[in-house]
Write a structure and sequence with these properties.
36% of the residues lie in helices and 15% in strands. It has 459 residues and is α+β, with helices and mostly antiparallel strands. A 4-stranded antiparallel sheet has the order 12-13-14-15, covered by helices on one side. α4 packs across α7. The radius of gyration is 26 Å and the shape is globular.
Length: 459
């Protein structure tokens, strides 16, 4: 589940007085759901909050175990909903089998196309008109000058997934004779909106949670959209549990909630990169944050590849709040070994070394210090380019928030100490690092930069 436009500025309690009733679309949604055997919002009501936008507010104190919301199974939108529609025959006949996400996305796009004639119009009207995941970045924004490599490659993958599924969906629609799709050329924007709606707002249904649907035969069939329930915002550590009984999907809280507080759920253990990709927002100060390091920034000599394989070295190179990934330090350690030692180094012994042992050599610390400054300079360069871009998309603004969070992570490892003139008379920053090294810049080439490192004798 996810929201749009939720770049959180700070966590803070929100009282009933600081929220206001949301617009009439959600009031219409509540009325429509009541007419379809919904018992109502119970202890919750939709509200607008200054830091998260739309959300759900507790109208009275809630004790642990209290039911937050109960949604009739007939109002859940799943692959079974799509299979019962006019698209069902084409979806069942598709080979290879389509994914449940594509099936639900096609159903959503079709219902939106129906407009006022759709029986689901109040729910569709309650959905955001656009989202802030990288799939909504404009093509001009998919640039290495604007986005660091890890974010850029993920954004391109999202755009490619939309285009790939668009082609599959168009072929499927051409093969169906259902009158509802006659003359319909599904547009990329229609498919993008439906695809991202499912991606950001669908809940994951556990195998033990029987929704009463027959096996669909579709791939990855474990998601469902839930009207009203998808208004819950995310907060790490907000614990809830679910059950299916009496024809309803129920959500209960595991902790007490005061009257007038926003009620949250936890979308799962994700760092901010995952949150941006899956939902389109960041959580300030996310404890799981780790800044990705491009593998090409830490090249391994050919002679070190055998040891890297023996050490089971992967490509999870990152800088987190508490330190550095083992893969990053191992790669730096192997890259710093003299060539004559690489022929005899035991990769399995390297794998057993402690993080302190891996960072003991001065060459490793120098390389790490230079790498940290290069990361800072690269992120600052991307942010500067984003600020200079006219009329950036909301999705790019969320990417900017992610980069600022990554800079905050790096501030725990590297910081500017001073500015000194170099031999060429140009004044450049001098950086200190967590491991006690001082980094001075020499020649800067592009966003990455080339750096020399001076090690402090006294740490």
């Amino acid at each position: 589940m996810g929201r749009t436009k939720r770049v959180r500025r700070r966590k803070r309690a929100v009282s009933a007085e600081s929220s206001v009733d949301v617009d009439g679309r959600l009031a219409e949604l509540v009325g429509w759901m009541r007419r379809h055997r919904w018992s109502g919002p119970g202890p919750l009501r939709p509200a607008l909050f200054p830091d998260t936008g739309r959300g759900l507010l507790s109208r009275r104190p809630l004790q642990p175990g209290a039911t937050l919301v109960s949604i009739p199974l007939s109002l859940l939108v799943s692959s079974a909903t799509a299979l019962r529609s006019e698209l069902g025959a084409a979806l069942r006949a598709a080979r290879p089998a389509v994914s449940a996400q594509l099936a639900v996305s096609l159903w959503l796009a079709l219902e939106r196309r129906r407009g006022a004639d759709s029986g689901w119009r109040p729910y569709l009207a309650s959905l955001p008109s656009a989202y802030t995941t990288p799939a909504y970045c404009e093509p001009r924004e998919l640039s290495a000058d604007l986005l660091p490599e890890a974010l850029l490659s993920a954004a391109r993958l999202q755009h490619a997934a939309v285009r790939r599924n668009l082609l599959r969906a168009r072929r499927l629609l051409r093969e169906t004779s259902a009158p509802c799709v006659a003359g319909w050329e599904l547009s990329e924007e229609e498919l993008r909106h439906a695809w991202v709606t499912v991606k950001t707002r669908a809940m994951c249904v556990e195998p033990e949670e029987d929704l009463g649907n027959a096996p669909s035969g579709l791939k990855d069939d474990n998601c469902a959209l839930a009207p009203f329930l998808d208004l819950f915002n995310h907060r790490p550590g907000a614990t809830v549990y679910s059950s299916v009984s009496d024809g309803c999907y129920r959500l209960m809280t595991e902790h007490g909630v005061a009257a007038g507080e926003q009620v949250f759920i936890d979308y799962g253990p994700r760092d901010n990169l995952q949150l941006v990709l899956d939902y389109g927002f960041v959580v300030p100060g996310n404890e799981r944050d780790a800044v990705p390091v491009p593998a090409e920034w830490v090249p391994l000599p050919v002679a070190a590849q055998r040891a890297a394989d023996d050490a089971r070295l992967r490509s999870f190179l990152s800088v987190g709040r508490e330190g550095y990934s083992r893969d990053l330090l191992t790669r730096l350690y192997l890259a710093a070994l003299p060539e004559q030692e690489l022929a005899t180094v035991d990769g399995q012994e390297v794998q057993c070394m402690s993080l302190q042992e891996l960072t003991a050599p001065s060459a490793v610390r120098r390389a790490l210090a230079a790498l940290l400054v290069r990361l800072v300079r690269h992120l600052e360069s991307c942010l500067a380019a984003q600020r200079a871009l006219p009329a950036p998309s909301d999705a790019l603004r969320v990417c900017s928030a992610l980069l600022r969070e990554w800079l905050l992570v790096l501030q725990g490892h590297v910081w500017e100490l001073d500015r000194r003139p170099g031999a060429d008379g140009v004044v450049r920053p001098v950086y200190g690092t967590r491991l006690g090294d001082v980094v001075t810049e020499s020649v800067i080439h592009g966003a990455g930069g080339e750096l020399t490192v001076e090690v402090c004798a006294d740490g």
